[in-house]
Amino acid sequence: MRRAALVLLAAAALFVALTAAPARGDSTPRSALAGRGAELYAENCSSCHGIAGAGIGAPSTVHGVGDVAGFGPSLRGVGALAADFYLRTGYMPLRNPSVQPRRSKVEFSPDQIRALVAYVASLAPGPGIPTPHPARGSLSEGMSLFVQNCAGCHQAAAAGGYVPDAVAPPLGPNSPRDIAEAVRIGPNLMPRFSQSRLTDAQLDSLIAYLLYARHPDDRGGVALGHVGPVPEGLVAWLVAGVVLVGVCITIARRPA
To answer: At residue 173, does pLDDT exceed 80?
Structure first.
């Protein structure tokens, strides 16, 4: 009996230590941080994502914060991963739930974001925030992975593009953490890449290429804004056409 009591006591102490552990970058105990986040959530998020993150499946006739009609998915099980990405990039909160989220002004302070992330993560078990290491990646492998999986929408130079009913944003402003989170989440129409589809080591290589693509080595040519081979080819044809017309006019004006 004494041994069983000691085991139960140790388990209780471990539980208290884990629940009171501070979140990364914040000295506030996790339970208190989530409590602060619950207040912020009720004020700013519940009108679209429902009470306790249950979600609202159809546009509501009752408008909430910012006169926005409530409509949003459940947040239970999304973990810290999705909450951190959408809040730090300004994708959320949305003024209109029916439009594509885009990078915009961040509405919350870093402390408020940590609190909201802690609260959303407490709703149900879910993935945590990734920690990429692009310095460990392979630049050539990253380029190959990006061309195979991402360039069709974001262009080979990661300058962004257009797909049906959506915009593939340029990836230049994204930090390694933003990229890692987006890859694992698959925001909007972007596919989600799980560990089985893209390992952490491959993700490091992909991020390494994207960091390189911001300032690539353009030796031997003019970059033309890195807008991609098709627009660059059109520019080449336009310049060649103008030169050809100029040559023809010059020849025609020469005296016989």
So the answer is: yes
For the chain, the domain total comes to 2
Q: What is the dihedral of CA 237, 243, 248, 250, to 10 degrees?
A: 170
Report the CATH number at residue 170.
1.10.760.10
Per-residue burial over 148-161, b if 16 or more Cβ lie within 10 Å, else e, is ebbbebbbebbbeb
Question: CB–CB of 76/56 below 8 Å?
Answer: no
Same domain, 149 and 186: yes
Specify the 3-state DSSP secondary structure of 166: strand
CB 100 within 8 A of CB 92: no
pLDDT of amino acid 249? 87
The CATH number of residue 62's host domain is 1.10.760
C-alpha separations of 242 from 95, 208, 229, 249 in Å: 47, 40, 20, 11
Phi, psi torsion values for 100, nearest 5 degrees: -70, 130
Q: What is the pTM of this model?
A: 0.73
Q: Which helix (H) or strand (E) holds 202?
A: helix 200-213
The number of residues making up the chain comes to 256
* 46 shares a domain with 111: yes
Over the stretch 55-72, which tens digit does the pLDDT of each residue have?
988 776 655 555 566 788
| 117 and 41 belong to one structural domain | yes
Domain of residue 141, residue span = 134-213
Question: 48 near 72, Cβ under 8 Å?
Answer: yes
